[in-house]
Input
Amino acid sequence: MVLTEEKLKLLYNKENIKEIKVDKKTVITPSAREYMAQKSIKLIEESKIEENNKIKIPIEASGRHIHLSQKEADILFGTGYVFTISKELSQLGQYAYKERVRLIGSKGIIENVVILGPMRKETQVELSLTDSRILGVNAVLRNSGLIDGTPGILMSNGKNFVYIDKGVIIARNHIHMNEKDANRLNVKDNDLIKVKIVSERSGIFENVLVRVDNKFILNMHIDYDEANAFYISKDSYGEIYE
Output
């Protein structure tokens, strides 16, 4: 196959294409390459797609946790309280604190919920669906940070109590990556993609959110419900599924 400037113009005028996928044997004329540069049309070669799809994406299961705002931290632990870091997390600049809180719902209580740092602008509680049913909270599936219209919950450190009127979510599964990883995998920030999980009980996740930032380390985050359903182990990994 020969890809010419004329063919590209027809496609661009008809569909306003932003990218074009070609077979590795396709011959691309110089004028076609020039036209792609002028119109910012991205060229994707099938051989590169096949290679990228073989990239193994590490999988990390996240248990229930809380991101506190400074306001709620002050109410629970006191103004000026300094939290104790117990361990660094997989993403740079993220860590778990030694301190724990209790979640109190209409149907049940969950003790010893970990607090992750650093502090955020608004408090966010991330649960699995199983957790939300134990508590009696109708947590909704959301991207992290998008908490408007979500339910609230009562929290305590055993001594003090605070109620948040929103912020309880089931976090959408997502992949952290830097720009280099995104280019290798041919994805961009906020894309929703399919990911094949390779495990003893393999399967496919749809609508996995891509999060791109140069401080990120390649890692797919799922909750414990999802990890158990797919029989995730240390040997499991993900692959982009076309």
